[in-house]
Amino acid sequence: MKKLLAAIIALIAVIAGLIAWNHQLTAKQSTTSATKTLVIYNWGDYIDPSLIKKFEKQTGYQVDYETFDSNEAMLTKIEQGGTRYDLVVPSEYTIQRMKKEHLIQPLNLREIPNMKYLAPQFLNQNFDPHNKYSVPYFWGTLGIIYNDQLVKNPPKHWTDLWKPEYRNQEMLYDSARDMMAIALITQGHSVNTTNTGELQAAEQKLRGLSGNTKAVVADEMKMYMKQDEAAIGITYSGDAAEMMAVNHHLHYVVPSEGSNIWYDNFVIPKSAKNVKAANAFINFMLEPKNAAQNAKYVGYATPNQGAMKYLDKSVTNNKAFYPDKQTMKHLQVYRDLPKKVNQEYNDLFLEFKMFVK
Amino acid sequence: MTTKKHWFFSLPYYLWLALFVVAPLVLIFYQSFQGLNGHFTVQNYVNFAESGVYLKMTFNSVWYAFLITVITLIISYPVAYIIAQFKSRDFWLALIIMPTWINLLLKTYAFIGILGENGSINNFLRFIGIGSHQLLFTDASFMLVAAYIELPFMILPIYNSIVAIRPSLINASLDLGASRWQTFRRVILPLTKNGVFAGIQAVFIPSLSLFMITRLIGGNRVITLGTAIEEHFLTTQNWGMGSTIGVVLVVAMLIVMLLTDDSGKGVHR
Amino acid sequence: MKKRRTLSKIYLAVILILMYAPIFYLIYYSFSSGNTMDGFKHFSWKHYQALFVDTRMISIVLNTIIIALLAALISTAIGTSGALLIQHIKHRAWRQNVLVLNNILMVSPDVIIGASFLIFFTFLGIKLGFWSVLLSHIAFCIPIVVLMVLPKVKELPRSLTDAAFDLGATRWQAFSQVTIPGIMDGIKAGFFMALTYSLDDFAVTFFVTGNGFSTLSVEIYSRARQGIDLEINALSTVMFLVSLVLVYIYYRFSVKPSPKGGR
After folding, report:
1. Is the full-model pTM beyond 0.90?
2. CB–CB of C185 and B164 under 8 A?
3. Given 3.40.190.10, 3.30.750.24, 3.30.70.260, 3.30.559.10, which CATH number is that of A141-261+323-356?
4. Pair B210, B146: CB distance under 8 Å
5. Is the ipTM of this complex over 0.90?
6. In terms of CA atoms, which chain C residue is nearest residue B180?
7. Residues of C whose CB is below 8 A from B205
8. Which PROSITE patterns is this protein grouped with (chain C) (predicted)?
9. I need a surface site. Which of A252, B227, C98, C218 has the fewest CB within 10 A?
10. What are the start and end residues of each CATH 3.40.190.10 domain in chain A?
11. How far is A187 from chain C (nearest CA, A)?
12. Strand, coil or helix: what is B234?
C-alpha cells in the first residue's frame, strides 16, 4: 500500500511537471487576446506555414490552425457546435449543404478587394451563385494516374480501365461519388443523376472492374503509387501532382470525355467570432504573390489569374493540371444530392466493394 | 456507516456507468430508429436483415474476428507462460506492452513498407530467388497485422492468471507423480481459464469492429462491421444505419460474454 | 529440461523480434535523409533537428502524455473500485448486467463513442478542449481496467479477508493490507492498458477535441493526408527510447529490495 501511494504521488508530481513545462511552451505562443486570434479550420498540410507567419507579422493577428481530414467529419463538428472557427475550407458540395443548414454567413465582398485576381471561370459557380458565401481556394480534377514502367499502353480514357491487360493492377478511390461518376460518364450519364435505373446500371458496370482492382484505398494511395505498388490509380489532380514530384515514372491524365472538377473554398461559419480577421486572411491569401507561393507549396491548381505569372510555365502549361478549354467543357461539378439519392450512391458502392472480394 | 463509505467508493463508477455508458447507449438505440429524414422508422433494421450485403458483412466480420482471436490465443499463451517463469517478469511484460505505445497508424505504415511490392520481405524473397509475391491486400496480411495489434491485449490477462497460480499447487501436482503435461492440462489450464476468457473478450470484440487496417492493409477487400459504421458516421452521414449496426455489435458482444461467462459454473473457493 | 528452457527462450525471442520489427523499421527510417519510408537515402539527423525546434509538436506530445497519465491514473482508481464493486454484488443477474454495461464501451467502435460523447458534451455545454478529452479518455479506459482487475478480484480468497477481520483488522486495514496487495498485479496491468488505450486513441479524441487542443494521434492522422512525415518517425524513436529507459529504471528499482516487499 505504501508503495502504491508513493507511486501515485510520484505520478502526480510528474504530471504537474509536464503541465508546467507545457505551460511555459505555450505561454510564449499565445499572449494575445481572443479578439486578436483567428481560428482556421483546414485540411491537414493544405497551406504554406510560412504564409501564416507572414500574415501574423503583417496584421498582428494570432492564427490558430486546426485540421480535419474529411468534409463530413468537419461538418459534424461544426453542426454540433462547442468549437469556434472563423474560417473553414470545405469542398463545393459541402458548401451547398452548409448553406442549406444555415451554418455559414454571407461574405462582405467589399472587404476582399483581391477577389479581382480570380479567373472569372471559377467564379459564380452553380454551388454558390455570385460567390455570396465562398471564395475559391484551390481547384482540381479527378483523373487517372499511371506508372510508365508498369503499363505498356497507358490508359487515356475511362473505358480503358476495363481492359483485361490491367488485371489486378488498379487502385480505386474509396469514395462512392467518384467511382460512380466514372461508371456514369462511360455510360453517357450525368455525374449528378438521380435516376435509380442509371445508378444501378453504373454499379453493374463497376462490377466489371473487380478483376482489375488491386485495392480500394483513400489518401494512402499516394504512398502506394510513389512506391510502385500499383500500376494505375484513380485520384485527384492535387494528389497526383504530389506523387509525380516524388516518382518521375508517374503520369496523370484527365479523360477528355469528361470528369469531375472540384473546388475547395473559404467560407465563414455563422459561429465565427472574428469575421474581420477572416476577411483579412482571405484577402491576404488572394494576393497574387502569396497565392503563387501557396500553390507551389501545396501543388494544387490555383484559381488565381494574377498568380499565374509567378508560377513556372511548365506547371501552368501542363494540360494534366490546367486542362485545355475542350476538356474543361466536359468537366462536371458535383451537386449536393437529396439525402435519399446520396444513400443510393453509397449503398450501391458498398455493394460493389463487397463484390470485389 | 460502512454502507455510507461503500457508496462513497462506488459512486464514481456508477456515475460513469450512467453518464458514459447508459446515456450513449440510449442515444445509439434511439438513433437506430431514425430514418434519413429524421422520422421514427424500423427501416434500418429491415435494410440490415433484407440486404444480403450487411448479412454477408456480419458473417465475414465474425469469421475474421474468430480467426484473429484463435491466432492471437495460440501465440499468446506460450508467451505469457514463459514470461511468468522469469524472475524479472515485470520487465519482460513491459517489453510486450511497449510496442503498443507507438502510434497505430505509424506501425501500419511500417507494415506497408515491410509487406509492399518493393518492401523488405519481397526484396528478401527476390534475393533468395523465389521472386516477389503479392503480400499486401491479402487476407493473410490483414490477419497478421490485426493479430499483431491485438497480441498484448491477449497476453496480459493470460499472464495475470498464470502469475496468480500458487507455485505450491504445481509442486503438489508434480510431487504426486503427475507429468508436466498432465500438470499443465489438469492444473494450470483450468486455473487460467478466467484469463483466457478475459483475453478472448479483449480481442474478439474489438476485432469485430476493426477499421482503418481493413483499408490500409486489406485494401477494402475485407469489410467489417466497424468499417461500415465508420463510413456511415463519417462519410455517408447516415447515423441511423450506423447506429443500427452498432446495436448489432452490442448484441454480438452480449453473445460472446454469455459464451465466455464462467461465474457460477467455476470452482467455488 | 534444459532443452525445453532454451526452446521457450527462442520462441519468446522470435515473438519479440516480430513485435519490434515494425518499430525498428520506423526507427531506421528516422535517420534517412529522404522524406519517405521507401529507400533509405543516407544517414542524417535532420528529422531530429526539425523535431526539436517544433514547439507546437512538443507541446502536443506533452498534452498527449499528460492526458494519458491522468486518464490512466483516474480510470485505474475508478475501474478498481468498479471491479471490487462488481464482485460485491450478491445478485447474480444484476452483476451480469453491470458487467455487460461495463463492456459496452469496449465493443462500441470508436466513431460511435466519439460521436455520442460529442453530442453529450455539447448537450451539457462543456467546452471542447482539454477537459472534454480527459473525461472521454477516462471514460473509455475504465472498462479495460475493470477487465484487467476483475480476474484478480475473483481469485482473491474470501477466507483471506475474513481472516483479517478475525484478527481484529478494521475494514480499511483489511482493504489496504489484504485486498489491494492481492490485486496489485491486476491494477498495474489495468494502468498500463489504460495508458496504451489513451496514447493510441484517435477517433474519440478527434470528435471531442477543439479550441486549439490536440493530441499526437489526431496530429498524425491529419498529417497523414500528405504521407507521413519522417519527423514523426524521429518523434516515435525518441518516445520509444524514453519509455525503454523508464521501464529499465522501474525494473532496477522495483527488483532491488528484498523479496519480502511487494508480492
Report:
1. no
2. yes
3. 3.40.190.10
4. yes
5. no
6. C1
7. 103, 106-107
8. ABC_TM1 (PS50928)
9. C98
10. 28-139+262-316, 141-261+323-356
11. 32
12. helix
